[in-house]
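Response to reviewer comment R2.3. The reviewers asked that we include at least one raw input/output pair. We reproduce the pair for Ubiquinol-cytochrome c chaperone domain-containing protein here without editing.
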Amino acid sequence: MPRMAQALRSCRVLQHLHTVGTSSLLQTTATATATATCQASTSGSGCERDGYSALLALSRQLYRYGFSSLANTRSARLREVTEALMTPSRSLQFDRGDVPIPADLNNPLGRAMLRLMGFESKASKILHSAQRLYEAVTENADTGVMQRAFQSGTMFWATYVFLSLHVWMVIHRLRNCTSPDVRIFRQRFYNQFQADVENRVYSAGVQVGVTKWLKKLETHFYETGFELDEILKKGSTDPLLLTDIFLRRFYGGDEKHRADAELVSRYAMRELHCLALTDDATVLGGHVRFSGSGLLQEAVQRAGVLSPAEDGAATAPAPAVGEEGAGA
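Raw output as returned:
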């Protein structure tokens, strides 16, 4: 039985290392393991013990190699992402075009009907702009690049935190807008976020207690936003200013993710500056493209980051949204 447990342990190590891209070592290990096994099966009990000893030695080697590989990937990721986030800030202006008219209504009669129904009214245009801006948020958060760059894990929570971060940044930026329509626009934009989060909760498999989870997520959003706003009132431009908040709110206070929280802080401070460089009309028109995915894509590729949980999935305050109630 102990020998069987040892063999299973080695198999698990092989499987884990395969997921982090150590295929060349696995091929060598597989050959050596097969040789040791053949020797054990043909040479009696003494050689059998030698075979198991060789297997255990390979297991230890794989553990050392695996931890070394992960450490090297982590160091490369932290370096590459930090360098990417040190690039100069710029305006986030990006023309997203107008809301397309359905093909069957794109004719004189159809357009006249749409005008009568308020499609081109002021309220409708504000709604369309809010939809465009929230599209920019989801476009940035759903690529998986930020999850890999900041190692937020693979669960529902991993994407939710970046959706909520960008929504907060937009709302924070809108406080400096002087347009009389900003209050209505902000509410329409936030409504898009709430509706999307509800759909994502259902998509994560939650069938009961949805209202409870939505309330928890909303509370988390407001509390996190309040803390971020309060610390920004100090007027500091330190890129690591928000680290402690992100560590506690996004990573559950797990100190092994402090370096990741520092990266999120750098990103948020840079993106807030980019939003400040983007004029009010552009933001209120929804013609924005956040820089996260585009800026970090090459960085994570250069670092060889293959997974959003390669350093160990984050321990966040509410990752169970995708688990509790699943299939109920």
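Residues 2-69 form one domain. The first helix runs from residue 2 to 19. Further pairs are available on request from the corresponding author.
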